[in-house]
């Protein structure tokens, strides 16, 4: 019975990896084709006005970013699969860190015509212990996933940081198509898609949110999503605040 289960698990693993390769191939080819088309347009003089040239260059920039993220995601995924994620934990000032993250991703959102809001409700001195690079991956992956499903005339993404006792809670909200209640518990599973269709033209490797969950859980945090169909989705995660144990140190001194 156990051998049968192992065989089925291996078959499932092989199927998922084949799907991943297929998805990655498709999603790399799409921006490459677009970049070639826009570069040819520039070389052929089609982008004759400064406005059109600016539009072409912005599009090339966005597509190159998409490719870079996809390749980086695949590299990181291989480390998850072998349990070799390199974490470098340090003290991070929450207000400064997330402000910098938002400013960085804001340039990309502006180029895409997406409105990005940032609301910080934690004190300036709040600290968490985290890997700065991997937390940036968390933010980028969640936002990238939101961007794929923005279907309104004006895309909006809001990031909120708030204090919840011993934790900070981060919420990243979009005004996209939303997710059905039955699908919400599964969106962090590897290769899961709420609209399941590879034909939906949304693209993506299907591993972005599973990577996010892995990183958050490795930080001792928790992640979940809330959503309303036709209104949008919000992904939330919590991280424990860092608090120095000054009292214990004083007690130790007295005992000594």
Strand order of the largest sheet: 2-4-5-7-6
CATH-defined topology of the largest domain? Heat Shock Protein 90
Largest sheet: 5 strands, mixed
Would you count the extended β strands for me? 7
Kindly report how far apart the N and C termini lie: 59 Å
CATH superfamily name of the largest domain?
Histidine kinase-like ATPase, C-terminal domain
- Radius of gyration (CA) equals 21 Å
How many separate structural domains? 2
- Tally the helices: what do you get? 6
> What structural class do you assign from the helix and strand content?
alpha+beta
Unreliable stretches, pLDDT < 50, 5 or more residues?
196-202
Shape: globular
Task: Tell me about this structure.
The chain has helices at about 1-45, 50-80, 95-110, 130-150, 210-220, 245-255; strands spanning about 90-95, 115-120, 125-130, 155-165, 165-175, 220-230, 230-240. It is of the alpha+beta class and about 260 residues long. It folds into two domains: about 1-80, Orthogonal Bundle (Helix Hairpins), CATH 1.10.287; about 90-240, Histidine kinase-like ATPase, C-terminal domain (Heat Shock Protein 90), CATH 3.30.565. The strands form two sheets. It has a five-stranded mixed sheet with strand order 2-4-5-7-6, covered by helices on one side. Strand 4 and strand 5 form a beta hairpin. The radius of gyration is 21 Å and the shape is globular. Residues about 195-200 have low confidence and may be disordered.
